[in-house]
User: Which sequence fits this backbone?
């Protein structure tokens, strides 16, 4: 991809530079390189935040959320977060475990026949290890993960969208997050799940949705369209970098799930022979330069992308949202976050 050559050159310069002082948290350096990388990869707009100790210690809007109308991207610009929705579904399943005694070792077939493997459990679906011989291999499959929608609806005794809104968005004050772009469209059946006041809030928030763009191999951005998308446990939520920062802080404060369950969710699952897979429960988990990374991504082809990377030992989280799919290349779904140039940049600056 021709546009990646200068972008890789940016990273090469950074890698050859002296390691920054980790205690100093060089936000200005990161922002400068992030803006350069955004320009060279052709992404029209990026919204970003870094969370440490539960606080947003840096935020930025880079480029344009709408190029044609020259509207700048801001830290509170709204984007579809795609597969990052899976982390919210994992929290809701976890709450069912903690509050209602749900066992994640129950077979998924209790709730759906969408997964043919009779021995596949909720644990296997949460870890993207339900294919073939369940638990023995990782295969990223959002379609299978979507089967958890029925699990959440059953234990919450309400539709998935309502559960996300009530148990996470409203509870955490995530006022700029919406359980589906279609809730701003009159006639959408799921609007009946919400009050007139909630719908008015959704419609107002969705007015700030970033315009989607396709970026070609030369780095040229062309205005695109958001595809019709289901809202389920695998995808469909809409949010901002600052609202996701609230979600991240609540996780670290154990306001949504207890420490024991988070520890399990943020640890690699293993096969029957003890081989670690690149996933936890609803998250990817990997090692980088001796640090454990907990992360997830989203990519709406030709429209938007998202990336959330936690460095637990340093109590540090990066959140990036963009109005093209360039943040998260297709290969990232194999379980290596460094497939993203933007992840590499963050890790080099803040981890080393």
Assistant:
């Amino acid at each position: 991809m021709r546009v990646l050559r200068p972008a890789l050159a940016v990273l090469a310069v950074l890698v050859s530079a002296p390691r920054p002082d980790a205690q100093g948290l060089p936000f200005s350096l990161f922002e400068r390189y992030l803006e350069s990388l955004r320009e060279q990869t052709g992404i029209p707009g990026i919204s970003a935040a870094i969370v440490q100790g539960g606080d947003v210690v840096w935020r930025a809007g880079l480029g344009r959320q709408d190029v044609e109308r020259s509207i700048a991207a801001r830290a509170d610009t709204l984007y579809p977060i795609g597969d990052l929705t899976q982390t919210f579904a994992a929290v809701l399943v976890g709450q069912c475990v903690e509050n209602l005694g749900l066992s994640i070792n129950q077979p998924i077939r209790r709730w759906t026949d969408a997964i043919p493997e009779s021995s596949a459990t909720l644990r296997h679906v949460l870890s993207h290890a339900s294919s073939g011989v369940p638990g023995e291999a990782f295969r990223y499959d959002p379609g299978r993960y979507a089967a958890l929608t029925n699990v959440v609806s059953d234990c919450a005794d309400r539709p998935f969208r309502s559960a996300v809104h009530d148990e996470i968005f409203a509870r955490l004050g995530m006022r700029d997050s919406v359980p589906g772009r279609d809730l701003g469209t009159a006639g959408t059946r799921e609007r009946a799940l919400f009050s007139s006041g909630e719908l008015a809030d959704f419609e107002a928030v969705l007015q700030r949705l970033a315009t989607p763009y396709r970026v070609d191999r030369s780095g040229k951005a062309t205005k695109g369209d958001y595809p019709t998308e289901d809202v389920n446990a695998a995808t469909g939520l809409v949010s901002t970098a600052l609202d996701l920062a609230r979600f991240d802080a609540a996780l670290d404060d154990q306001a949504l799930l207890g420490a024991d369950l988070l520890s399990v969710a943020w640890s690699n699952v293993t096969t029957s022979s003890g081989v670690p897979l690149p996933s936890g429960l609803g998250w990817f988990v990997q090692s980088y330069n001796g640090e454990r990374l907990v992360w997830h991504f989203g990519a709406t082809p030709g429209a938007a992308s998202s990336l959330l990377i936690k460095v637990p030992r340093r109590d540090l989280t990066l959140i990036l949202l963009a109005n093209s799919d360039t943040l998260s290349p297709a290969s990232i779904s194999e379980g290596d976050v460094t497939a993203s140039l933007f992840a590499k940049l963050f890790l080099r600056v803040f981890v080393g």
Q: What stands out?
A: The first helix runs from residue 4 to 16. The first strand starts at residue 45 and ends at 52. Residues 15-24 have pLDDT under 50 and may be disordered.
